[in-house]
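FAQ: What does a ligand-bound record look like?

Like this one, built around fe (ii) ion:
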Amino acid sequence: MKYETQKIAYWFFAACMLLFSLQLIYGFILGFDRMGFDVLHDFIPFNTARAVHTNLLVVWLLTGFMGSAYYIIPEESEREIWMPKLAWIQLISLLVVGVIAVIGYHFNHWEGRKFLEIPRELDYLVVVNVLTFLLIIFMTIWKGKRKTTTAMVLFFGLLMSALLYLPGMIDFDNVTFDSFFRWWVVHLWVEGVWELIMGAILSFLLIKLTGIDREVIEKWLYVIVGFTFLSGILGTGHHYYYTGAPRYWLMVGGVFSALEPLAFLGMAMYALSMARRGGRKNPNGIALKWTLGCAIMSFVGAGFLGFAHTLPGVNMWTHGTLVTAMHGHMAFWGAYAMIVLAMISYALPEMTGRAMHKHWMAEWGFWLSNIGMIAMTGAFGVMGVAQVYMERKSGMDFMVVQESLEVHALGLVCAGALLTLGIVFFIRNFISYGLPVMDESKGAVGGNPAPAAPDKLL
Ligand code: HEM
Ligand code: HEM
Ligand SMILES: [Fe+2]
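The answer part, i.e. the structure of the complex:
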């Protein structure tokens, strides 16, 4: 850790681990519901659990992005964070809003606008919180010694994410309009500006881990990420098929969203070739695994499985089924969960001076969680395709179909358990690192962790 204030990132990452664990618990509630064991129905019905599961996902990822920014920006700008006390307040208020929202879901029925279920009063608090965060990051870059492309792309991605939250706050009586603008948030986040955030973190990690020149990495990576971003804008049309939006969206959405996977493929190939060309500047092999894993799995989950249902002729049948959940899980995991876990894996040894990344738990955490997610995707895929055929092609009754899918949900829950075991290892390893220190004798300052660091679990 080069700068004292970078340790703020540690607490964002710790919050991340906590919220992620909660998300997984709600994942199990959903999985058991799907198996037919709806025992919690009176307290936590399926729709509530679903809203909590997906909203917690978005919040822990945003917390992870913020932590990453608090770690990356001081290093890129070569100065301490501007007004660090404000950053602490920002973290605490973010958690307070998160807790109120999660508790509130259990008492109110705010659902209905997937991913954007929180009530308006809390929306305003989110806006104030995010503006504070952006101000701190902006001032740090502004007052910094250098302004790198990576810092700029990261800031721009975060700023645009905040601005794109606003269309989701407009109220419409008309359901077509409401859904039209809801996608400006949900789609333009994950297939637009979040990709810039991911690209910037990816670039930072590749520079640090492979030792390849910044100029080389930044130039091509941002061309590729820019292509994903641009195709994603008109690609929004893949959510406008048959919703009451004009017919030309069938063509526009189909063509542009079909281009998106190419950009994801380019990113995966580029990251792999950079890793092959570069030396191993940093001994942290597990951070490199998460980094390259992210580039590959985001292609599989977002690019490949996204394409699987993006053409109008396919989406007509699969829309809103478990085929969507199949893609949603692997895409969020590959692109965003993995980049946050990569950043945490890189930053922890740098912040604490310990070499826990060599521990078997770090390795097993990576493999088990990824194998678990691949298996979960398979289970959702089988359920989804079966659902489409029974419900939509054969016209069977909705509830009869849901019941006949229960047997596959057992596979889903087993796969989820594997993923969760991997994440338990990851978190156990996280805790064993201990707290961040500014201790030059441990070699934690900017360089590699000292070899003498304890390798055992604490
Ligand atoms: C990292 C990037 C991505 C993430 C995190 C992601 C995630 C998701 C999620 C969660 C949904 C469900 C949304 C909802 O119903 O509210 C969804 C829907 C969809 N995604 Fe993606 N996606 C990504 C990229 C892509 C790409 C590149 C494509 C196309 C090639 C794609 C195609 C689709 C389509 C067609 C739907 C609508 C499914 C339906 O009609 O039910 N996605 N995505
Ligand atoms: C223990 C592991 C997990 C289980 C058992 C699980 C299960 C589920 C279930 C049953 C649903 C509802 C699908 C439906 O509508 O019927 C769901 C939704 C969702 N989950 Fe998970 N989940 C788990 C972990 C995760 C993880 C790690 C992520 C992200 C990285 C994630 C992201 C999502 C998303 C984005 C949706 C909404 C999908 C859509 O709109 O179609 N889940 N999950
Ligand atoms: Fe989309």
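Follow-up question: can I read anything off the structure? Yes, for example: The two ends are 21 Å apart (CA to CA).
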